[in-house]
Amino acid sequence: MADMQAEAHGGGLVNLMVDEDRAGLLKDITMNLPDVNLSERNMCDLEVLATGGFSPLEGFMVRADYEAVLDRMRLQSGVLWPVPICLDVSAGQAQNLEAGQSVALRDPEGFLLGVMHIEDLWPADRQKEAEMVYGTTDTSHPGVDYLFNRSGDYYIGGGIEVISLPIHFDFKQMRLYPAEVRRAYEKLGWQRVVGFQTRNPIHRPQFEMTIKAMRQARANLLIMPVVGMTRPGDFDHFIRVRCCRHVAEHYPSDSQVMTLLPLAMRLSGPRDALLDAIIAKNYGCTHFIVGHDHASPGRNRSGGLFYPAERSRQVAAGHSAEIGVEIVPFEEMVYLPFEDEYRSKDQVAPGTDTISLSGSDIRQRVREGRKIPEWATFPEVVKELQRAYPPPERQGFTVFLTGLSGAGKSTIAKVLYSKFLERGDRPVTLLDGDIVRRNLSSELNFSKEHRNINVLRIGFVASEITKNRGVAICAPIAPYEVTRREIRGTIEAYGGFIEVHVSTPIDECEKRDRKGMYAKARAGLISGFTGVDDPYEEPSRPELRIDTTDLTPAEAAQEILLFLSNKGFI
Ligand SMILES: Nc1ncnc2c1ncn2[C@@H]1O[C@H](COP(=O)(O)OS(=O)(=O)O)[C@@H](OP(=O)(O)O)[C@H]1O
Ligand SMILES: Nc1ncnc2c1ncn2[C@@H]1O[C@H](COP(=O)(O)OP(=O)(O)O)[C@@H](O)[C@H]1O
Question: What positions does the domain APS kinase occupy (predicted)?
Answer without folding.
Answer: 395-547
